[in-house]
Amino acid sequence: MSRSELSLSEHLADSIVEIIRTERLVPGDALASSRDLARRFDVTTPTVREALRRLEATGVVEFRHGSGTYVGPGSERRLLANPHLPRGSRESVLELVEARLVLEPAVAAAAARTRVPEAVARLEAASTNALHPPQESLRQSVHFHVALAAASGNALLREAVEALLQVRAREQVEIRHRYNDRARDHAEHVEIFAAVRDGDAEAAERLTREHLGSIREAVLAADFPEVGAEDEGRADSAPEEAGARDAGPMDTGAADAGATGAGAETGVAR
Amino acid sequence: MSRSELSLSEHLADSIVEIIRTERLVPGDALASSRDLARRFDVTTPTVREALRRLEATGVVEFRHGSGTYVGPGSERRLLANPHLPRGSRESVLELVEARLVLEPAVAAAAARTRVPEAVARLEAASTNALHPPQESLRQSVHFHVALAAASGNALLREAVEALLQVRAREQVEIRHRYNDRARDHAEHVEIFAAVRDGDAEAAERLTREHLGSIREAVLAADFPEVGAEDEGRADSAPEEAGARDAGPMDTGAADAGATGAGAETGVAR
DNA sequence: ACTCATAAAGTGAATAGATCACTTGATCTC
DNA sequence: GAGATCAAGTGATCTATTCACTTTATGAGT
Predict the structure, then answer these.
(1) Which of A12, A30, A262, B175 would suit a FRET pair with A107, their CA atoms being 20 to 30 Å apart?
(2) Domain architecture of chain A: domains with CATH
(3) What is the pLDDT of residue A102?
(4) Which among A7, A55, A152 has the least Cβ separation from residue B84?
């Protein structure tokens, strides 16, 4: 009936998702080749590519030139950060931190109530492993906050926090790199962990609020590079391999979004 | 210079985003035609299409066959729901409601503290306009919760709630359609609005928690179609009308009225 | 046997040039 | 002036190739 109101390539994308699901493919598994898919669905390769590109944008599939197409981490993710964001100003980072300030304390409280053992273990690991190199600390922190959300037992909550942390990840790196007190960060993480471990929801909530409050202060103190000059700054201080290959289970590579590069930042925002 | 490890179409996608930004294009504005873009960037049309498809996936652009390519609502959105989700079970809907139960009370409290006037007005409209037809009520409810988040003054918070509401939108429609008490829903909305209007953060938080709690009960009571048979089941028991597909436009205003002739839409005129 | 270079096959990336379907607006009736 | 008609522009898709990269199996050379 109302079947194909969808464009061919849209329908194709859905069909491919269907394949991933019915064949129980998980991230990392290989997909049939473009040519195979084209034959199977009786369309041409450019059409298949369009469908795959579309899925790639949300992380459902990944391309590896010369090797094949693989299922990506987005295949089991419900929320995600827009990978194609324009400009970033201090305001946008501040807005992000303030959003986290509203949401994460509640998440911490939920985590302290549920305390999923596995996630609590990861939480401890993320708060114990201390003071690593520069870059590492941000990743550590991301791990901590994600593990915190995971401890709530609600995967969607974890995804929400993950997605939030991915927004403006680049700018967050910049700020933390320059202004954040890693020692204090670490100490606060330890305190939050203890509260969660002890099942003290009230304390977990309050401590998380204070923790993010101090991050907020750091952002306010930062003389964030204004739009227009922001290209150089981030290009040489943030090497692009922040990527994903190392750690185990839930590492989603928060910072790897896309190193845009490309020059000619002419405009001034607003 | 710009270490281009990116595929050509990835780079192209970023360039197009750059165009949208530097030319100050807003949702609804037309983009150059595929052929033009191909010429301008000296690539072929299939390559341009790949880039555009990728952007389409996140709502940054929209295609209109025979007419052109337009800027979409996603161009100014940082968080979004994965448009390619597999199966939906009762568990997943329950998980969603419980995530909202954790997050939204805090959002409501923030809203009561900030009370952005414009958003509060929309909040009142969404809670006053009572008991419309079946389908309409869900949309009304979405409007309410989004306006609530918007009243916090933090756009990212609003986007987070929007994205959350888009997840499993179809299943949510189904459940509300069958199990939810619209009258009670409405009454609770009115109470929450009053609390926000009066700047009573504590009450707003508690009322929102209770409100979502009752929605949670409705979900628990629902005998939702189980996984496995849902392939066919979903297709014919949930026609694809108000679901996820057109949840987007509500923010951009323009296209909203088209869906039903019910009118009375609080004009979002521009 | 073992190591290492190398060739072959498979795959994604992109090109080139068309054809068809749809929308839109201007022209042409009536 | 209202409506039908037509043509230009645009997206959607196809057919046919070529190039670049990865992986693997082959086959020296040691």
Answers:
(1) B175
(2) 8-76 (1.10.10.10), 90-237 (1.20.120.530)
(3) 97
(4) A55
CB–CB of A164 and B163 under 8 A? no
CA-nearest residue to A205 within chain B is: B106
Give mean pLDDT in consecutive 10-residue pieces for chain A, a chain of 270 residues: 61 94 94 96 96 95 95 92 78 90 98 96 84 64 92 96 88 73 87 96 97 90 55 35 34 35 31
SS3 call for A156: helix
By CA distance, what is A270's nearest residue in B? B24
Contact state of B58 with A266 under an 8 Å Cβ cutoff: no
Q: Which of B195, B50, B38 is nearest to B120 (CA)?
A: B195
Output the pLDDT for position A200. Answer: 97
Single out the residue of A254, A259, A57 nearest to residue B59, CA to CA: A57
Decide: CB of B36 under 7 A of nucleic strand D: yes
- Cα A123 from Cα A144, distance rounded (Å): 6
Q: Which of A107, A156, A167 is opposite residue B78, by nearest beta carbon? A: A167
Burial string for A178-201 (b: 16+ CB within 10 Å, else e) reads ebbebeebbebbbbbbebbbeebb
Cβ of B5 near strand D (under 7 Å)? The reply is: no
Q: Which residues of A touch B74 (CB under 8 A)?
A: 82
Q: Return contacts of B221-229, CB within 8 angstroms, 24+ apart.
A: B221/B179, B222/B90, B222/B175, B222/B178, B222/B179, B224/B89, B224/B90, B224/B93, B224/B171, B224/B174, B224/B175, B226/B89, B226/B90, B227/B87, B227/B89
**Residues pairing with B80 in the sheet:** A80
Task: Answer whether B4 sits within 8 Å of A50, measured CB to CB.
Answer: no
Tell me which chain B residues have a C-beta less than 8 angstroms from the C-beta of A161: none
Low-confidence ranges of chain B (pLDDT < 50): 1-4, 227-270
> Which of B14, B65, B82 lies nearest to residue A58, judging by beta carbons?
B82
Q: What is the pLDDT of residue B132?
A: 58
Helix, strand, coil share (%) of chain B residues, nearest 5: 65, 5, 35
How far is Cα B182 from Cα B129, in angstroms, rounded to an integer?
12
How wide is the angle at C-alpha A242 spanned by C-alphas A236 and A248, nearest 5°?
A: 170
**Torsion angle of the four alpha carbons A232, A238, A241, A246, in this order, in degrees rounded to the nearest 10:** -170
The amino acid that residue B257 corresponds to is A
pLDDT of B169 reads 80
